[in-house]
Design goal:
The chain is mainly alpha-helical. Among the domains are: 143 residues, 3-Layer(aba) Sandwich (Rossmann fold), CATH 3.40.50.300; 86 residues; 68 residues, Arc Repressor Mutant, subunit A, CATH 1.10.10; 98 residues, no CATH class. It contains 31 helices and 8 strands. The strands form 2 sheets. It has a 5-stranded parallel sheet, sandwiched between helices. Strands 6-8-7 form a 3-stranded antiparallel sheet. Strand 7 and strand 8 form a beta hairpin. Helix 7 crosses helix 9, helix 19 runs antiparallel to helix 20 and helix 21 runs antiparallel to helix 22.
Length: 645
């Protein structure tokens, strides 16, 4: 939940209506009218009514970028806020919504859905009847009222008395009392719009020695130049013009360029990249006059009306600034991917220049933190690059971000990123790029269990590369194709592709990639119950992984060796190796593979007659499969426990 608004005044009738409202309340009104302030003030004031907590999301329904937050992304944020691991969040919105409702069942929580575009965006986010939902929107959301019994609360402008009280709370009652006429003019100029009043107060606070009469005279001139005087937002535009006209050149430059930034917020370092210099002083100045706010330390956001006004001011340096920002995000994604996945195959790429301001992660934790903070901005950067015709950047971002998104469960972002990359690749006269984009989208489809569609994209990639000498690229696609067939349990069809990937990689001098391909062939053979042949390849691969510190690949390969031993009638050896794997998976936090290892260990222990140890393994596996939302597997193991009793 965001912090409560500063100096909240008035709205006694609206607050009383919220006190009486039902399970779902739609707070509607014009932009800048104070809907969010009202909802946040009430949420903090009445927090005691919700002992199980509060959830908040800005749905960005009227964001100038035109990219509202999808229900999937909002649900993912809620689930993670409720303690669900990012890797355990289901990929389908229906499953996400079902899990969300089950977690909130019986709880007394407040869910604040801020800045909704329409009812369709809201409906999947509605919990059960024990929680309260407040939705803010410029739209009246009549569909929500009709279909879900929502109560409607319309917010209007502040009356003059409350507007004066708001200014007094922000700039001091003595200052307001000393210049009553000037305050009256300022209040009239703001037309009761809280956003406009807040900006005026910020300007007055920033210049405490300025007479309020002087500020009123400046604002009077700005209003005379404003169009559409009957428009309720004319006062906001006039105040914004007046406020930005007083900015110093560096501050005005940054303000204008911030309106072009592709994400919901921006970090201080990204702002540096935007202007190509240290932006800290300008950011502080903009925050001081209420044109930006820090939504978390070091990250800044704008009200969408302020952002729209800022974007309209951006003229000089626009293209160069966006190029710098796109470069910052692209190089940052590259640096993070290399830090976290140094053994991952890297195709031939156009240069990823390191600009004067670049992010370099000091360690793995920092790399993951950067990705989590920037992932929405990175998705916006890809769309921005597409609009600007920077097609190479679009597919590069998809490539760099793919393993990060897979690992953290952002499968919808991965799918969207590769779909955009494939569209971008059609503009690039490079067979390898088009093949990689097809491969990426194919793998993303497989992640959603759209196996046949995924294989179709992968086959297109193979066709594109068929007459080339790009051995690494061909190997990557063959490996992905083998994985697709294996995911569909079509191991006989997977094996030729796994073998072809290995044959292509062996001459290239890539030891870890070659070992991964060898492990894939070995695993496929084990699935086909060719245990000795598969185990020999797996054991060769493990040696390489240990030499190069690839712990994840080592653990998965050891698990497959254990499976082959068990299938070969050597259960005691398999059990010992599974114990080693359990330690590795526990260390890495790989709960899915840990649960599978516990399940298999339980089977062996039961065969040995150790019923208590088998039951303990299965109980742990049930918890882990439930954590990763593999309900089918969890229910299967519960059946084993029932049979024991």
């Amino acid at each position: 939940m965001l912090s409560p608004p500063r100096a909240f005044v008035g709205r006694t009738t609206e607050l009383a209506r919220l006190d009486e409202a039902g399970a779902v309340v739609v707070v509607s009104g014009a932009g800048g009218i104070g809907k969010t302030w009202l909802a946040l003030h009430w949420a903090h004031r009445d927090a005691h009514r919700f002992p199980d907590g509060q959830l908040y999301v800005n749905l960005r329904g009227f964001d100038p970028s035109g990219q509202p937050v999808s229900p999937e992304r909002a649900l993912r944020g809620f689930l993670e806020g409720l303690g669900v691991s990012s890797t355990a969040v289901p990929s389908e919105v229906e499953s996400q919504a079902a899990l969300y409702r089950s977690l909130l069942a019986g709880r007394r929580m407040l869910v604040l859905l801020d800045n909704a575009a329409d009812s369709a965006q809201v409906v999947p986010l509605l919990p059960g009847s024990t929680s309260t939902v407040i939705v803010t929107s410029r739209d009246q959301l009549t569909g929500l009222v009709a279909s879900h019994g929502a109560r409607r609360l319309t917010v209007d402008t502040l009356p003059p008395r409350d507007a004066r009280a708001l200014l007094a709370a922000r700039i001091g009652a003595d200052r307001v009392a000393a210049e009553r006429d000037a305050v009256t003019e300022l209040v009239d100029s703001c037309a009761g719009m809280p956003l406009a009043l807040s900006i005026v107060a910020g300007r007055a606070q920033a210049y405490p020695a300025f007479p309020l009469a002087a500020l009123a005279a400046e604002l009077r001139e700005a209003r005379l130049n404003a169009l559409d005087e009957d428009d309720p937002l004319a006062s906001v535009r006039a105040v914004l013009s007046w406020s930005t006209d007083a900015l110093k050149p560096p501050e005005a430059q940054l303000f204008a360029l911030l309106g072009l930034a592709p994400g919901p917020d921006i970090s201080a370092q990204a702002a540096d990249a935007l202007i190509g210099a240290d932006a800290s002083r300008a950011l502080r100045a903009l925050e001081r006059v209420s044109l930006v706010q820090q939504n978390s330390p070091g990250r800044y956001r704008m009200h969408d009306l302020v952002r729209l006004h800022a974007a309209e001011q951006a003229k000089s340096d626009r293209d160069a600034a966006l190029d710098r920002l796109i470069g910052y995000y692209t190089h940052g994604a590259y640096a993070v991917e290399r830090a976290l996945f140094p053994h991952r195959a890297l195709p031939v790429l156009a240069p990823v220049p390191e600009g004067p301001i670049a992010y370099a992660p000091p360690d793995d934790d920092a790399a993951w933190a950067w990705f989590h903070a920037e992932h929405a901005c990175l998705a916006g950067t890809a769309r921005l690059a597409m609009r600007r015709g920077q097609y190479a950047v679009v597919w590069q971002l998809a490539w760099f971000l793919a393993p990060l998104r897979w690992r953290q469960g952002y499968l919808d972002d991965d799918f969207d990123g590769w779909r955009l990359a494939l569209a971008a690749a059609e503009h690039i006269d490079d067979t390898a790029v088009r093949a990689h984009a097809s491969r990426g989208l194919g793998r993303a489809c497989v992640q959603f269990h759209q196996i046949d569609e995924g294989i179709g994209h992968l086959q297109r990639a193979l066709d594109l590369l068929a007459d080339t000498d790009l051995a690494l690229e061909r190997a990557i696609v063959h490996s992905a194709t083998a994985n697709a067939y294996s995911t569909g349990r079509r191991y006989a069809e997977a094996l030729p592709h796994a073998r072809q990937a290995l044959a292509l990689l062996e001459p290239l001098g890539q030891p870890v990639l070659t070992a991964q391909a060898r492990s894939q062939v070995g695993e496929t053979l084990v699935r086909l119950r060719e245990n000795e042949a598969g185990r020999a390849l797996l054991e060769q691969a493990v040696t390489v992984f240990r030499e190069h510190g690839d712990v994840d690949s080592e653990a998965i390969t050891l698990s497959n060796i254990a499976i082959s031993l068990d299938q070969s009638g050597r259960p005691a050896e398999a059990l010992a190796l599974f114990a080693t794997c359990r330690g590795l998976y526990t260390t890495s936090g790989n709960h899915y593979h840990l649960a599978d290892t516990l399940d298999r260990s339980g089977d062996i222990l039961l065969a040995f007659g150790d019923i208590d140890a088998a039951a303990e393994c299965w109980r742990e596996a049930v918890v882990l499969f439930a954590t990763t939302h593999q309900r089918e597997f969890a229910e299967r193991i519960k059946g084993k426990l029932t049979d024991l009793s």
